[in-house]
Structures are given as structure tokens and as C-alpha cells.
């Protein structure tokens, strides 16, 4: 499929997509947390490396909701057919940053739980059970 925009326009459009407040997944997880009466969490807390999507400060648990495309989910992600070199490098940088952030949080004594977008969509109660297990440790 041919892109209908030139490179500069497509770049501007893609730069405008924010990685914060992804309502289709973060709001869904927030509603499951509330419905299941999990307490003590904060959304997008300030001051933690990598800006986790959620955290449980008392348990020192940071949650990240990783979009399947942007974080190159091994199950779902497909490299776009156009501009493959750019996208390959971009997604690799995202994976590298994810590892760096995880190490930084762990050095500060935090546990990190990463959730794939598709996990929240397909098995929200399995995700809630994973969170509960981490909160107990």
C-alpha cells in the first residue's frame, strides 16, 4: 500500500502521536483495577525513570502498558512495508530504552511488570491475577 502523504507530512503526523494516555488500553486497565478493587495505585506518577503508566508505591511495583506496535511485540508486531530501515531502528531503540528503564527502576528497588496491549484486550482477568501475584511478593 502506497502512503498518501509525503515523508515530511507523515513524519509530522507520527511525531504528534503521544505515548501517554493511550485510552484504548490504559483506560481499560484502569477500569479493571477499579472494578477488581485493587487499591493503592497511581497513574503516570512523576519522578520515576521511564514514566510508568501505573505504579503501586507501597509495593514499589511499576506497571507499563506496552503497545504491540511501538514495542515490537513478538506475537503481534509487523514491520511496516515502507521505510523498513527507519522503523527497524526506531523499534530497536524503543526495546533498548525499555531495558534501560527497567534496570534503572530495579536499581531503585522497584519491581517492573510489563503488560502487552493484546494481553489486556484478550485476558484482563489474567493480567489482574499477575498484578495481584506481584503485589504479594
Describe the fold and architecture.
The protein has about 140 residues and is an alpha+beta fold. It has a domain at about 45-135: VSR Endonuclease (Endonuclease, Chain A, 3-Layer(aba) Sandwich). It is built from five helices and four strands; from the N terminus they run H-H-E-E-E-H-E-H-H. It has helices at about 5-15, 25-35, 85-105, 115-120, 125-135, and strands at about 40-45, 55, 60-65, 110-115. A four-stranded mixed sheet has the order 1-2-3-4, with helices on both faces. The protein is globular and about 50 Å long. The model has no long low-confidence stretch (mean pLDDT about 90).
Set down the secondary structure blueprint.
Elements lengths: L6 H9 L7 H13 L6 E2 L10 E3 L4 E6 L17 H24 L3 E6 H6 L1 H13 L1
Parallel strand pairs: 3-4
Antiparallel strand pairs: 1-2, 2-3
Amino acid at each position: 500500500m502506497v502512503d498518501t502523504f509525503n515523508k515530511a507530512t507523515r513524519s509530522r503526523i507520527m511525531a504528534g502521536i503521544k505515548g501517554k494516555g493511550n485510552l484504548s488500553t490504559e483506560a481499560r486497565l484502569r477500569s479493571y483495577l477499579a472494578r477488581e478493587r485493587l487499591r493503592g495505585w497511581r497513574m503516570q506518577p512523576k519522578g520515576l525513570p521511564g514514566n510508568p503508566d501505573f505504579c503501586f508505591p507501597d509495593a514499589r511495583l511499576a506497571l507499563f502498558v506496552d503497545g504491540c506496535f511501538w514495542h515490537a511485540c513478538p506475537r503481534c508486531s509487523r514491520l511496516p512495508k515502507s521505510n523498513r530501515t527507519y522503523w527497524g531502528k526506531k523499534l530497536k531503540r524503543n526495546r533498548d530504552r525499555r531495558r534501560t528503564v527497567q534496570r534503572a527502576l530495579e536499581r531503585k528497588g522497584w519491581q517492573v511488570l510489563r503488560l502487552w496491549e493484546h494481553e489486556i484486550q484478550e485476558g484482563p482477568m489474567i493480567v489482574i491475577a499477575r498484578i495481584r501475584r506481584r503485589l504479594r511478593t
